[in-house]
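Quick one: co-fold with adenosine-5'-diphosphate.
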Amino acid sequence: MKLVMAIIKPFKLEDVRQALTPLGIQGLTASEVKGYGRQKGQTEIYRGAEYNVSFLPKVKIEVAVSDDLAARVVEAIQTSAHTGKIGDGKIFVFDLVNAMRIRTGETNDEAL
Amino acid sequence: MKLVMAIIKPFKLEDVRQALTPLGIQGLTASEVKGYGRQKGQTEIYRGAEYNVSFLPKVKIEVAVSDDLAARVVEAIQTSAHTGKIGDGKIFVFDLVNAMRIRTGETNDEAL
Amino acid sequence: MKLVMAIIKPFKLEDVRQALTPLGIQGLTASEVKGYGRQKGQTEIYRGAEYNVSFLPKVKIEVAVSDDLAARVVEAIQTSAHTGKIGDGKIFVFDLVNAMRIRTGETNDEAL
Amino acid sequence: MKLNRSVAAGIALTAGLCLTAGAAMAQSATPAPVLNKADTAWMLVSTALVLMMTIPGLALFYAGMVRKKNILATLMQSFSITALVTVLWGVIGYSLAFTDGHGATAPFFGDFSRVLLFGMGKDTLAPGTTIPESVFMMYQMTFAIITPALLVGSLADRIKFSALMAFVTGWLLLVYAPIAHMVWAANTGLLGKWGVLDFAGGTVVHINSGVAGLVGCLIVGKRKGFGTESFAPANLSYALIGASLLWVGWFGFNAGSAMTADGRAGMAMTVTQLAAGAAAVSWIAIEWLIRKKPSALGAASGAVAGLVAITPASGYVAPAGGLVIGLVAGAVCFWGATGLKHMMGYDDSLDSFGVHGVGGIVGALLTGVFADKEIGGTPGLLQGHPGQVLLQAEGVMVTIVWCAVVSFLLYKLIDKTIGLRVSVEEEIEGLDYSLHGEILH
Amino acid sequence: MKLNRSVAAGIALTAGLCLTAGAAMAQSATPAPVLNKADTAWMLVSTALVLMMTIPGLALFYAGMVRKKNILATLMQSFSITALVTVLWGVIGYSLAFTDGHGATAPFFGDFSRVLLFGMGKDTLAPGTTIPESVFMMYQMTFAIITPALLVGSLADRIKFSALMAFVTGWLLLVYAPIAHMVWAANTGLLGKWGVLDFAGGTVVHINSGVAGLVGCLIVGKRKGFGTESFAPANLSYALIGASLLWVGWFGFNAGSAMTADGRAGMAMTVTQLAAGAAAVSWIAIEWLIRKKPSALGAASGAVAGLVAITPASGYVAPAGGLVIGLVAGAVCFWGATGLKHMMGYDDSLDSFGVHGVGGIVGALLTGVFADKEIGGTPGLLQGHPGQVLLQAEGVMVTIVWCAVVSFLLYKLIDKTIGLRVSVEEEIEGLDYSLHGEILH
Amino acid sequence: MKLNRSVAAGIALTAGLCLTAGAAMAQSATPAPVLNKADTAWMLVSTALVLMMTIPGLALFYAGMVRKKNILATLMQSFSITALVTVLWGVIGYSLAFTDGHGATAPFFGDFSRVLLFGMGKDTLAPGTTIPESVFMMYQMTFAIITPALLVGSLADRIKFSALMAFVTGWLLLVYAPIAHMVWAANTGLLGKWGVLDFAGGTVVHINSGVAGLVGCLIVGKRKGFGTESFAPANLSYALIGASLLWVGWFGFNAGSAMTADGRAGMAMTVTQLAAGAAAVSWIAIEWLIRKKPSALGAASGAVAGLVAITPASGYVAPAGGLVIGLVAGAVCFWGATGLKHMMGYDDSLDSFGVHGVGGIVGALLTGVFADKEIGGTPGLLQGHPGQVLLQAEGVMVTIVWCAVVSFLLYKLIDKTIGLRVSVEEEIEGLDYSLHGEILH
Ligand SMILES: Nc1ncnc2c1ncn2[C@@H]1O[C@H](COP(=O)(O)OP(=O)(O)O)[C@@H](O)[C@H]1O
Ligand SMILES: Nc1ncnc2c1ncn2[C@@H]1O[C@H](COP(=O)(O)OP(=O)(O)O)[C@@H](O)[C@H]1O
Ligand SMILES: Nc1ncnc2c1ncn2[C@@H]1O[C@H](COP(=O)(O)OP(=O)(O)O)[C@@H](O)[C@H]1O
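Sure, here it is.
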């Protein structure tokens, strides 16, 4: 199994979720993060000097998938989260040693 | 070493923490996440159409453990986070290549 | 590639970011987490019994790097996040199977 | 509120009165009214209270119902409307609404004699009252501010800031000012002359804003994601704080509309409170029955519904009437914000029409039912005067038609020029950042 | 507050008075009181101020001290109590508390002559005052609202919403109304007749709510996780905003209790402010000494403690007395919310008893010490009248006993029927979602 | 505000007046002033309104502009200053500021005759007014509270709590009290005697706090990370709520400064509103042009700038003057908070000087330009009296010099003893936790 983690622009979350459904993805976990990268934020005007805001709001998605699905999931995320503008984010893939559904105790692919 | 990541119902955090203590777990990291899965949220009534809320508040736990403890940690989490109702969450296990305690620079099992 | 994850004291975020820049790190992702460990929080006085607050605010940093950089990144984080006081946090390193830049579709080292 | 012609002579009694032994109340004196400091004190305070209804009251009420990415923009809407209408009202709005006007247009519009407030001296009294015209003008300004701020509720989450400012400018002069004139301009207003009762703005404020909101949300269209995405309010505590401040400020709105600090003001305050409480209770009860859980947003919405419905009636009805109006309003507006809206399928984002439009209509009609001769001098249906209900219905109709037609034209004009709605990207990104460059952290 | 019998003749002077040359003040006139618009204006405002104390003041003060999952439910408690008590007060509560009553029960209860406020006309004056009865009734309503809202602090985080609504209904009629009657019903109230001084509600409001809260938290039991989990307040800024609004609104509470806008009201406002400031300073100072860090919650709690303690004394004591009462209250209530509570081991979640109960008792007794003949007509211990302290202690005792006994029975009754406490799952999940289906995002 | 000597005889008319047939207004009577309940009611309310400006108004306005880790500490600053100044004012501050004083120091300081408020009886009237001295003292207290609370804006995010409390104590007695005395002490104050116009505190409150803030931020130094880190406000909604409450409360500040509820108060309220609205519009417009996006913080800052600038002028200028002052203030303060600050390179964290200092100076000078004989009795430049502008400039200069010099010495004294600034670790960790042991979750 793989865990696919993606850092995306917040307003793309819904699009990504919808792109994953046809692949049979039934669950995922999202969280609010702050991203630092090439994209620079706006300039502050009042109440502080002018400077570039370095951290911008992003959403992190984590979705555990079986090995054979991983590539298609990465592709679906890339396509649906893509705007072509700087700051679109990253996708990272990890090996998963084990997975378990708490409710039933099922493990591995059945747990996803 | 392994990193055990669990997505659980928020109100189970304290129970899980207490279940891990007897295993000698001295530290863990928790964060607020939003989960999408089989469990559906309540219906919104006012100020929006009726629909099912797709993302529900969950808590993510990350705990790094030595290889021999991993299985018992997974089990302890599964037992203590279990309610038997849909939405109980998932446990994922990763391989850890390295670990370090920032304060002392100790590495690997000593760092946990 | 490796993904370096560090749990640090919140006010060290800026220092860590600056320590990584000279290594050529162009991006990272941060999030607010709550840490449980040896460090204990303050005692509550009113509106509740006295007890030790178990979870303290921490910041989690995730940075994906090429394999050859990993060791230096870990070292830079350890040095810059270090205060020598309890609660300084941990650094964990994972293997990354794959990485992709959403904007361009570039993969692996080019995506970082 | 302009109907209160009886003039309390106030502090400076004329010598003539003093010599008339036994004259207990000054109301029998007909000479020129003089300034009454007690009335003035009360109206200064009422003005502050009604301003507080919009900022921060309504600003918070609405901001508490939107998603996080639109909270600042929603606060900004109320705040900017306050600033804009302040200037407009001083420059021309007050003059259009509250001067007598000339000839054929006099029933609908005032004239230009108070442009830039020229002619309003420090010691000028407002006609038919015992308070300075400056205080009367200011009090009316706070009504002119809250009305357009209310209608934004229907357009929340997607209206352009520039379009909104343009719309409010036109709407204040072409819809608010004439309708306020028709209802409240003491000597010439069309509906006032007909005998339509509207103590504190059921037609002028609530129906008016509700209808303009409805027309707006039909033209602007549904929010992206309507019916599929969660629009769950991000911070309902703001909505509760806002509703609370609206409630408290409403004493200035309704009891202040007596224009004097006397028993009628006290009675107006009483029925206002009873209606608010009763409507909150009835909304919560219905919700509890139907949905199994009484919600905080339901309680707040109920209270506001009751306050809306009692607005035209306060000053005319007795306590029992206030209670009943509240109970009815809670139930009907619950339906307005759920059943009706879903039935018709429009996206009245924060229920401006469902609560203010519907509640305003209910209140205006029930004023005709419960009006009590002992309180406001006019009997209603229950006192054998069914004609009053008809009159009220006529007032409602005129308001709806004028407001709907002119608002429609204004929206269309702005849509063709500036454009009413933000781009899809801006809407998804959130108005806070896309329109104002700010983020709530 | 009902003790102010001197009647200012107000605006409409009788001709007779006018002819009496040299009569500088109208107070020498004993004929029937007439409406005074200035007093009316002030009492209309005071009513708004006291309502603001509960919503949003107290609502925020309490919501700022709970965990995130209970913030909305805590706001909802204050808001719903406001709605519920509004209706109850109009229907029957006011009649029970403020009419004269009959026969043997007259010292404890009023009668039914004002049920549904029948008989309260637009021009009826409140007995012994110069303001409309409607305004008096409304002003008293705001006190009847805040008192049960205060006691919820002891039950926070675990009380069922349905049980709370039931309890408040019974408590208002069986505890609040009789105690208000005993203290304030001008002609028949037991404690008022004895000569117990309570200007603005030290017994009726604060001891009453504090004791009912204490009894409640003993019966309901400790929150799950008490002493082991963090109950750290999620959003203390709400507590600071709430305390601020309580402070501001308290001017209506205390200075308003003069029922007139004169020097006594001014003096009541003065001592209120001095006590609040002094108590905040003393609480912070002690905390700084003992705990090394002065906390924001400490400052807010101190100010509230001072406001509570000065409540019965305002209108009776001079500025220096107000300062001392504040300093003492800050210290004693600090102990009430820390030492005492831990010593006894009950879980008074938001310190309703520790601050309002303890502060109310301190204030009631110190009123007997510092009462100043020049201010309120009654001398205290320091002016050689130790009996007043005893009288005050008797008033405190009667209040405590009545309140504790009846509250106990009510809690037990409800616990056996509806059940007082939510289930463990609901408590852990948080009342916001489990009771009201809402979440703060 | 002390300039209003005309005394309305109020409720208790003397028989003599009654017998003088045709005397319409009581103002022709010159005997000793008597209490006017309507004025008293209005001033009681104004006092509440101005207190609300500081807590929660200013507390929120400032807390909304800092980073999350400093929000509670910022609220705490306003709240604690309120408590501290309350005590100081009652003990000695009021006496120093508002009694006549003796001999050579009389133009600068009062005397000790009101220490602990001794001698201020329940029925004492404030000299030259128709309200109780207690109410006057309280009203002035709220001004003494907000002024030091305003200056903290320049020191936010890095000032020690202990140092702040010490500074405020010294500053209140050595800067605020004397400058208030100079401007407002009716019989002896230096600047008042010269003829400097300051209706509601342009010099005493705004220039004073702005200059003390500027001196402070120069001495305390820039925040760590200034110019390199993001200081983006964490919760701008607080700033919007705070600005709204400041706006509403400002009616008490300016219209209350009439000390009476009459046409002058109404006019003061009118120009206050117009200036606030116009300044918000002008700030937003400029920002929209220059920065492409109108920000919520800009709207709020603009409104406050207008309110600051109209403060000395309210009560002296006509509506059109108010509008112009607002438009100018919005533009100039925009520059004060951006251009000027960046040019000079100081870190005036929340723009106390940029808005209050600059706005106060603009307002004080423009008062001399737009003063209207019809409104306040004094003509300005536009009515052919250029000398008034000079007088105003002199008033500004005296204030700046006195304030800057004494503040400088005080800061230095405290820096050498307690130390003004927190440690770097505390600053990075945030004042909430490091100074007060509390965290916003
Ligand atoms: N090496 C990295 N490790 C972890 N997260 C990264 C890394 N590089 C970028 N990110 C995340 O991806 C986001 C987008 O990166 P950015 O450089 O702004 O745009 P782009 O990827 O389009 O060039 C960043 O805000 C950050 O959250
Ligand atoms: N494939 C997945 N990858 C990551 N997180 C998942 C995945 N499936 C479920 N989750 C997480 O687990 C939570 C519970 O899943 P859900 O399907 O609702 O219940 P259950 O696991 O009991 O069937 C979800 O809310 C989500 O946070
Ligand atoms: N085994 C672990 N797994 C995950 N996170 C951990 C673990 N141990 C510690 N942490 C994180 O590291 C933080 C610091 O740990 P702590 O024990 O307080 O200090 P130190 O590492 O200096 O001994 C904790 O707050 C927690 O977030």
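If it helps, Chain F has a mean pLDDT of 92.
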